[in-house]
């Protein structure tokens, strides 16, 4: 095995990540690496840094994310924890880089928050082809990462899992994303969103699903970061038009994420939303 080099090989100046950690000393901080859709070119794909008391979590690692991080002198291996919401390439396309950089450069397994069920799916259907072979034989997913297992909470009305990292409490819940023709989340392929400290809701990818808000405890939620497709029909995403039909109270908490390049034609704050989520902005709670 090769000798490790500095994990900050891109450059020593990881200023934004240090700023995020410092800002999280007295609370919860969210910062988006990217806010774009799968095919966006003006923004990196939607990926979220969550920090509390200096502990960092990276949620989703799409194909464009290692490069977007590198633009800010952040290495993909620089985070304390990782979490993947589902298996589309705009959420996992950078996973192979994380796993192989961690093994061969940093020589430390990344801590990934993942259920046993999704660990099998992600490995068998997506990552195994590029990651399984190594210098000595065949690797398993658990040779390349340290799974942090969330605890199952309930199956109905919405399947949920919970996990704490440091002082941060995460609830992982199932969403209705793919395929586009199923009526219920129970029939959908594995995709999940996150409730962070009961205060911030991140839907990740979902179709319009008003029942989601009824199925979750929304009483303490201050902000919602919601998937939004700027053209209709939504098919596998929530369209801007559909989100417009939500109550004024919900809309006033919604920052739109996962949006396409035509965003300049829209004025979400005039339409009752908080607005478009912005990359590299620090959201404090
Ligand atoms: Zn996506
Ligand atoms: Zn997706």
Question: Could you tell me the radius of gyration in angstroms?
Answer: 18 Å
* The named CATH superfamily: Ribonuclease Z/Hydroxyacylglutathione hydrolase-like
Largest sheet: 8 strands, mixed
Helix-strand makeup class: alpha/beta
- CATH topology group: Metallo-beta-lactamase, Chain A
Taking the alpha carbons of the first and last residues, their distance comes to: 43 Å
Strand neighbour order, sheet with most strands: 7-8-9-10-11-12-13-14
Bound molecules: zinc ion
Q: pLDDT below 50 for ≥5 consecutive residues: which ranges? A: 1-11
Number of helices: 9
- The CATH class turns out to be Alpha Beta
Q: So what's the overall shape?
A: globular
In what range is the share of β-strand residues? Answer: 15-25%
Q: Order of helices and strands, N to C?
A: HEEEHEHHEHHEEEEEEHEHHEEE
């Amino acid at each position: 095995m090769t000798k490790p080099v500095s994990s900050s090989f891109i450059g020593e100046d990881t200023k934004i990540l240090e700023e995020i950690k410092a800002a999280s000393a007295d609370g919860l901080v969210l910062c988006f690496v990217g806010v774009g859709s799968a095919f966006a070119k003006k923004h990196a794909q939607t990926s979220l840094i969550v920090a509390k008391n200096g502990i960092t979590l990276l949620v989703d690692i799409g194909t464009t994310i290692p490069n977007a991080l590198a633009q800010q002198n952040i290495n993909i291996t620089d985070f304390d924890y990782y979490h993947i919401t589902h298996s589309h390439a705009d959420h996992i396309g950078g996973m192979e880089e994380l796993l192989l950089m961690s093994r061969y450069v940093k020589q430390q397994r990344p801590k990934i928050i993942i259920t046993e069920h999704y660990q099998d799916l992600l490995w068998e259907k997506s990552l195994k082809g590029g990651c399984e072979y190594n210098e000595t034989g065949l690797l398993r997913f658990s040779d390349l990462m340290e799974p942090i297992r969330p605890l199952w909470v309930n199956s109905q009305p919405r399947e949920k899992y919970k996990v704490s990292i440091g002082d941060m409490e995460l609830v992982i819940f199932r969403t209705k994303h793919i395929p586009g023709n199923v009526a219920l989340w129970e029939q959908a392929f594995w995709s999940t969103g996150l409730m962070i400290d009961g205060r911030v809701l991140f839907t990740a990818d979902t179709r319009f699903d008003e029942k989601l808000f009824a199925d979750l405890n929304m009483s303490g939620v201050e902000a919602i970061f919601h998937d939004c497709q700027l053209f209709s029909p939504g098919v596998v995403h929530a369209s801007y038009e559909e989100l417009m039909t939500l109550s004024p109270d919900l809309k006033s908490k919604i920052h739109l994420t996962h949006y396409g390049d035509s965003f300049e034609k829209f004025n979400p704050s005039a339409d009752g939303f908080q607005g478009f989520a912005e990359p590299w902005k620090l959201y404090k709670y």
